[in-house]
Design brief:
The protein is an alpha/beta fold and 153 residues long. Helix content is 28%, strand content 19%. It contains 5 helices and 5 strands, in the order αβαβαβαββα.
């Protein structure tokens, strides 16, 4: 049974882990403590919170649609423990800055200039989102962007 994002946030101990067979072979389960994204992003420091890592780039058309939705989710659930981190994969910082001027985020942006975090998660598409539960385990991985009512409610 799929649970909504709000259910994951409200009932941290009741969420369901994805079966490995449902994930792409390139995207395995990890824990927050096992992630080593670099000195300025310590996923272990978010233990007890629900974290969405959203990998994006300025050239990604669906990313333009995802930012308003991510802002909405941040506004709706941040006080309940949701943390959204947009992970930029642009090679040119000016491209990312221009994108952010057009689509300003209400959430944290991390620049993965060396693509270390993207390699760690084996990002295969843009955007790619990873929901990490309050227990630090991967709850859900999603490629692309499409708003579904089941995720919102």
């Amino acid at each position: 049974m799929k649970k909504s994002l709000s259910a994951v946030i409200r009932r941290p101990r009741r969420h369901v882990r994805l079966a490995a067979s449902l994930a792409l072979a390139a995207c395995g389960f990890i824990t927050a403590a096992s992630a080593d994204p670099g000195p300025d992003l310590d996923l272990a420091s978010y233990e007890g919170k629900v974290v969405i890592l959203d990998f994006w780039a300025s050239w990604c058309v669906p990313c333009r649609r995802s930012f308003p939705w991510l802002n909405e989710m941040h506004g709706k659930y941040a006080d309940q423990g949701l943390v959204i981190i947009g992970v930029n994969l642009d090679n040119d910082a000016d491209d990312a800055a221009e994108f952010l001027e057009q689509y300003p985020p209400d959430f944290r942006i991390h620049y993965d200039t060396e693509k270390e975090l993207a390699r760690h998660f084996e990002v295969a598409a843009m955007p790619s989102s990873y929901v990490i539960g309050r227990d630090g385990e991967l709850f859900k991985q999603h490629l692309g962007f499409k708003v579904k009512l089941s995720l919102i409610h």
